[in-house]
Amino acid sequence: MPRIDQIQELLKENPEDSFLKHALALEYIKQGDDANAKHVFEALLSANPNYVGSYYHLAKLYERCGLEEEAIKVYERGMEVARQLGEQHAYSELRSAYEYLIY
Q: What is the pTM of this model?
């Protein structure tokens, strides 16, 4: 069974599991399916805005799609959330990617 199918089966049992949603979006990216990855990341962050790791991947996806303004907003929001949660490592990664994009 393909990995995406496995994750989707697990999500049927645990539809609110942010880790599984994040994993599903990453699998879509691996397959070159940015549209589905974008949809999953956006839905995940809408339902669970504190899932810090998804901000980086969504912003990178926006960058690849040429949506730099959207990427900047996602990096900024991710840095804000990471700072609020005390997630220094995530904050540093987001800030580094953000600064690389804007400079």
A: 0.95
